[in-house]
Design a protein that fits this description.
By secondary structure, the protein is mainly alpha-helical. Helices cover 70% and strands 0% of the residues. It is rod-shaped and about 75 Å long.
Length: 56
């Protein structure tokens, strides 16, 4: 009975980790797309040059 519980617990942990990693990949892709859109669609400043779109 104990080996069965350990195998089920291991499967649950691996499934949870796999789902979390897949969710993190989707979040990374969304952040990359937002960054690219912001980088390409930044407005020009008063002097005609393109300024930074972030506030670092």
């Amino acid at each position: 009975m104990v080996p069965l519980i350990l195998v089920l617990l291991l499967a649950l942990i691996l499934f949870g980790a796999g789902f979390a990693l897949k969710a993190l990949w989707w979040i990374a892709v969304i952040v990359l797309v937002v960054w690219l859109v912001g980088f390409l669609a930044r407005s020009t400043g008063p002097s005609g040059t393109r300024g930074r779109w972030y506030r670092w």
